[in-house]
């Protein structure tokens, strides 16, 4: 298990959630909490965030809940996070999303999408003829840093994906058991019945189909939008047959992981036709609302569980389970790929952001990047510290410490 950090500067990973139900699921993935008896780390002046600190195996992690949904809330929260926890090197945004299923990607509810890229699909210009997304090099969000790209490449291999899924499956079972033992918690995070996983044809709109509602002649009225498919008697004859669901014959399908582009915007996607159009144009497989606010601010990964199909038949029934599958995959990533390793030159732990990356603490003794010789200086700021017999060079500056 991790040892309690001496200060908040020792936290290198943050998990960010947009909704309370996402936070509840993510908190079940923690092994220990450091703030059960109060916040011992504090935060920077004018930081409005409320932090939860703890550990996942040997890794110290800070968990933060956004004040609300959307890109602006996400960007502001991460900016404040970095001011208080200056050692953060990776943010994992975990929670729920809508999916854009296709023949190439047979995504079902409860599956997990990991971001290969994030697209701001609502960033553009509105013309009389319609909306045009800004899609130049300057307008698009950048690609992940090299260490995260290595991680994402590993998740696209059969072995890497299987290892992650095996670990996530065990973690999900532990989370479900932990939730069941909590008598004050009514959420069980069990998978809803398979017959509740319904994907309707793109052009089959969720609306009244009787002659009494004139508003639903072409589009759905406000009453219909709030009603369930059972209440509106949505026709199961318009359902799309999925191979994964038809093959299990009453059992529970395995959760799958998909790595791909995620569309991020300040609106909830509830249109099958717009979903398919944007998915084709922007090459995305999921829709959510916070990734674009985090993506450019700090190295990050978006890990979201699929709770609906981003169409007019959207339902809340799968949200808790999807939040739990995302949290289990998030923990599996941290356990298998991001656990602390020993530094090369001292006994304090560093953090590897991918299997091939290590951290070395200290200052280089010369400007030669290939030197491999490092000087490490320790001491209190208020004390009188002496460094003797060292020379440090950087740029045009040379510092000599004589004995």
UniProtKB/TrEMBL annotation:
GO terms for biological process: nucleoside metabolic process. PANTHER family: AAA+ ATPASE DOMAIN-CONTAINING PROTEIN-RELATED, ATP/GTP-BINDING PROTEIN-RELATED. Residues 348-367 have a biased composition (Polar residues). Coiled coil: none annotated. Residues 13-128 form the Nucleoside phosphorylase domain. SUPFAM superfamilies: Purine and uridine phosphorylases. Residues 346-367 are annotated as: Disordered. It holds the Pfam family PNP_UDP_1. One of its GO terms (molecular function) is catalytic activity. This is Phosphorylase superfamily protein. It comes from Colletotrichum chrysophilum.
């Amino acid at each position: 298990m991790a040892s309690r950090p001496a200060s908040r500067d020792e936290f290198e990973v943050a998990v960010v959630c947009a909704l309370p139900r996402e936070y509840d699921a993510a908190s079940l993935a923690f092994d220990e909490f450091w703030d059960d008896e109060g916040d011992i780390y504090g935060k920077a002046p004018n930081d409005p965030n409320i932090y939860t600190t703890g550990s996942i195996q040997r890794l110290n992690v800070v968990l933060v809940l956004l004040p609300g949904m959307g890109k602006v809330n996400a960007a502001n929260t991460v900016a404040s996070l970095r001011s208080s926890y200056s050692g953060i090197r990776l943010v994992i945004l975990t929670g729920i999303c809508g999916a854009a299923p296709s023949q190439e990607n047979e995504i079902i509810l409860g599956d997990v999408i990991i971001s290969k890229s994030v697209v701001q699909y609502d960033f553009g210009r509105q013309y009389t003829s319609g909306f045009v997304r800004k899609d130049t090099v300057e307008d698009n969000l950048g690609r992940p840093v090299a260490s995260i790209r290595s991680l994402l490449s590993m998740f696209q291999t059969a072995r890497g994906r299987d290892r992650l899924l095996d670990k996530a499956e065990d973690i999900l079972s532990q989370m479900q058991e932990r939730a069941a033992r909590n008598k004050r918690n009514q959420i069980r995070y069990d998978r809803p019945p398979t017959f509740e996983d319904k994907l309707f044809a793109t052009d089959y709109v969720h609306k009244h189909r009787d002659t009494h509602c004139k508003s639903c002649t072409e589009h759905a009225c406000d009453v219909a939008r709030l009603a369930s498919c059972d209440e509106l008697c949505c026709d199961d004859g318009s359902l799309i047959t999925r191979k994964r669901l038809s093959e299990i014959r009453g059992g529970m399908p395995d959760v799958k992981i998909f790595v791909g582009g995620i569309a991020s915007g300040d609106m909830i996607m509830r249109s099958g036709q717009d979903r398919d159009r944007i998915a084709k144009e922007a090459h995305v497989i999921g829709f959510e609302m916070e990734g674009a606010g985090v993506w450019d601010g700090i190295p990050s990964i978006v890990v979201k569980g699929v709770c609906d199909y981003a169409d007019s038949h959207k339902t809340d029934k799968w949200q808790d389970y999807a939040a739990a599958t995302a949290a289990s995959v998030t923990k599996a990533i941290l356990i298998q790929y991001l656990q602390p390793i020993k530094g090369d030159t001292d006994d304090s732990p560093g953090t590897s952001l991918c299997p091939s990356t290590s951290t070395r603490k200290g200052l280089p003794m010369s400007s030669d990047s290939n030197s491999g010789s490092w000087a490490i200086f320790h001491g209190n700021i208020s004390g009188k510290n002496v460094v003797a017999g060292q020379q440090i060079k950087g740029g045009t500056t040379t510092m000599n410490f004589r004995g």
